[in-house]
Design brief:
Number of domains: 1
CATH architecture: Alpha-Beta Barrel
Strand content: 5-15%
Largest sheet: 8 strands, parallel
Strand order of the largest sheet: 1-8-7-6-5-4-3-2
Number of helices: 12
Number of strands: 8
Distance between the termini: 19 Å
Oligomer: single chain
Structural class: alpha/beta
Order of helices and strands: HEHHEHHHHEHHEHEEEHEH
CATH topology: TIM Barrel
Length: 282
C-alpha cells in the first residue's frame, strides 16, 4: 500500500489494489466509546480512537469523516448553531459552519496525527457529504427545515468545502470521497463539483464518489455504488455491498478492477462484523 489512493486502486488492466473499504466510524464509536462517546474533543482523543478502530477492523483504506467532526462541533458549540441560522440564504449555514477557525485547526491537527500514525502503510481518505447533502444537513443543524438546492447553490457549497480542504493541503492526504449516499439522491451536474475536483487534482489526491448505480464520470478515480455495469476503460469500481452483506445474502464476485465497499451498521454486533469481514476478504 502507498499514501496515495489512486496508486492503490485495482484496475481492469490487471493492477491489483485494495479489496475492502469500510465506512465504520459510527459502529466504532459505539463499540469503543459508548452511545454518547465523542472522539472529536481533541486530536489526542481522536488519534487514540482511530488507532483502536483501525487495529480492530484493518481496512485497506483509512477514512477520516469530516462531516462527523462538524456535527460534533456544532453540538458542543450552540452559539455557532445560532449564527448558522442568522441569514436566510440557502448556502449560509454551511458557509458559516465551515469558515469557523477552531474546527479547521482541529481537523489539521487530527490529519497530522493520523498521517504520522499510518506511516504511509494505508492511504488516508477524507470523506465528506457531497455538497447537496451537506448543504441540506447544515440547514437542519441550524434549525431550519428542508431546503431546495439547485446546481448553482451546490457549486457555492463546493467552493466553501474546497476552501476548507486547503487548510489541510500541507499534509500527505491520499484521497477525497464525496458521499452522495447509496441512492445518489437527486442528480447533480458533476460540473457543480468543479471547485472540489480542482482542489483534489491540484494536490494530487485520489477522488472518489459514492453514488447511485449508473452514475459515472471520468473526473473521478473511482465510483462506489451498488453492483452494476462497470464503466468502460481502465476504471476502478467500488461495489457497495452494504445491503447484501448484512442481510447474509451472497456477495457478488469481484471482477478485475473492482473492490468491496461496506458501511457497518452502528448497532452491529462485533461477532457478526468479524464474520462478514471474513466473507469480504475471502
Amino acid at each position: 500500500m502507498s499514501q496515495r489512493l489512486a496508486d492503490d486502486l485495482p484496475r481492469p488492466s490487471g493492477a491489483n489494489g485494495i479489496r475492502v473499504w469500510l465506512k465504520s466510524s459510527g459502529y466504532a464509536r459505539r463499540l469503543l466509546l459508548g452511545e454518547a462517546g465523542d472522539p472529536w474533543e481533541s486530536a489526542a482523543n481522536y488519534l487514540a480512537f482511530f488507532n483502536q478502530a483501525h487495529g480492530l477492523l484493518k481496512p485497506d483504506v483509512a477514512e477520516l469523516d469530516v462531516g462527523e467532526l462538524y456535527r460534533s462541533w456544532v453540538v458542543r458549540h450552540p452559539e455557532l448553531k445560532a449564527e448558522m441560522g442568522a441569514k436566510k440564504r440557502t448556502a449560509f449555514p454551511l458557509k458559516r459552519m465551515l469558515e469557523e477557525d477552531d474546527p479547521r485547526r482541529l481537523l489539521a491537527e487530527v490529519v497530522e496525527a493520523v498521517v504520522a500514525s499510518l506511516r504511509g502503510q494505508t492511504p488516508l481518505v477524507l470523506t465528506m457529504p457531497a455538497p447537496r447533502q451537506w448543504l441540506a444537513e447544515a440547514s437542519q443543524l441550524a434549525g431550519r427545515g428542508d431546503v431546495e438546492v439547485d446546481d448553482d447553490t451546490v457549486e457555492d457549497g463546493a467552493m466553501y468545502m474546497a476552501d476548507l480542504l486547503r487548510a489541510v493541503s500541507g499534509h500527505p492526504i491520499g484521497g477525497l470521497l464525496l458521499d452522495e449516499g447509496s441512492d445518489g439522491g437527486e442528480t447533480v451536474d458533476i460540473e457543480a463539483y468543479r471547485p472540489l475536483i480542482n482542489v483534489a487534482r491540484h494536490y494530487r489526491w485520489g477522488l472518489a464518489l459514492r453514488t447511485r448505480p449508473g452514475r459515472a464520470s471520468a473526473e473521478f478515480d473511482t465510483i462506489i455504488s451498488a453492483p452494476g455495469e462497470a464503466p468502460p476503460g481502465d476504471f476502478a469500481m467500488g461495489c457497495d455491498i452494504s445491503v447484501p452483506l448484512w442481510a447474509n445474502d451472497a456477495l457478488p464476485v469481484l471482477e478485475s478492477g473492482q473492490y468491496y465497499f461496506a458501511e457497518i451498521p452502528v448497532a452491529a454486533q462485533p461477532e457478526a462484523v468479524l464474520q462478514h469481514l471474513a466473507r469480504m476478504r475471502g
